[in-house]
Specification:
The chain is of the alpha/beta class. The chain has helices at about 10-15, 20-30, 55-60, 75-80, 85-95, 120-125, 145-150, 185-195, 215-230, 240-250, 255-280, and strands at about 1-5, 35-45, 45-50, 65-70, 85, 100-105, 110, 115-120, 130-135, 155-160, 180, 200-205. Strands 1, 2, 3, 4, 5, 6, 9, 10, 11 and 12 form a ten-stranded mixed β-sheet that branches. Strands 7-8 form a two-stranded antiparallel sheet. The protein binds pseudouridine-5'-monophosphate and manganese (II) ion (MN).
Amino acid sequence: MILALESTVIAHGLPRPINKKTAFHLQDIAYKKKCLPKTIGIVNGQIRVGLTDEEIILMSERDDIMKAGTREIALAVATRRWAATTVSATIRIASAHGIKVFATGGIGGVHDVSNWDVSQDIYELSQSRMIVVSSGPKSILNLPATAEMLETFEITVLGFRTDEMPAFYTRSSGIKIQKVEETSEIAEIFRTKEKLELPGSVLVFNPVQQEFEIDQLEMRTWLSEATKKMQKENVSQKSVTPFLLKTIAELSEGRTITSNVKLLESNVALACDILHSLSKIQ
Ligand code: PSU
Ligand code: MN
C-alpha cells in the first residue's frame, strides 16, 4: 500500500531546518500506519518515486532546487536538474507508477482572477485519477474562484467530516462542499470513478485541527501586508506561493509553520486510513 508525498513543500514550502524534520516525520507516520511512503522528486534529472534519506536531506538543504510542476518535468529531466515536485508533478508521476493515494498540505488554485494566475495543480487534478488528501486551497488564494475552478475541471471534491471547504490554515471558508463521514465512502467513490472510467481525481479536504487553526482576521491582515510586499518587490509566477508562505510565516512569528506541519501530519494519517479502506474494495 503505497502513499505518495511531494517534495516542493520540503524544498520551497517550509523553512529550514523544520522542512527536513517534517519530511522524515511524515514518512514515519505512514510507516506506523502500515503504509509505504514514497516521497517524489527529481534528482540529477532522474525521476525518483521514493527519494533516499540522503536525497531528502539534500532536497531540504540545497539552494538550487528547481520547483517543478507537470510542465517542468521534461525540462528538469532533460537538463539533469534537481527538482522538487509540486502537487501537479507529484500526481502525474505517482499516477504513472500506479499509485492511488497522495497526501499534501495545501493545494494550489486561483491566485488572482485578473492576471490568470491559476495553479497547474487544478488542471492536473482533472487529468489523473488519484485520491488527493489536502487541507484546502492555500489561504493565500482567491477561494471562491478556486472552488468554481475545481467544478469547471470536473474534480470530485469531498469534505472529510465537514460540509465546508477548509482553507489550509483555517477550517472554514463559507463555501459548501459534499461531506463524507468515513474513509470507506471515499474508497467507494474512487472505485466507482475507476469502474465508470471517469477521469480526474477525488480531492479530499481534511481541515486543520482546531487547536492549530489560525484566526481568519489575523490571517487577512498578514495576507494583505504580504501581498503589498510582493507587489513592491515585483514577485511573480512560480515565486508567488513560496514568497507569500514565507512572508506570512514571518508575520505570524512561526504560527503558520506549526499549523502547516500539523495539518500535513494529519493528512498523511488520513491518507493511510483511506489506503486501507481502498484495499478492502476491488
Ligand atoms: N502546500 C504547502 N506548502 C507548499 C505547497 C503546498 O503546505 O509549498 C506547494 C505545493 O507543491 C503546490 C505548490 O503544488 O505549492 C503550488 O504552487 P503554485 O501556486 O505556484 O502552483
Ligand atoms: Mn502560479
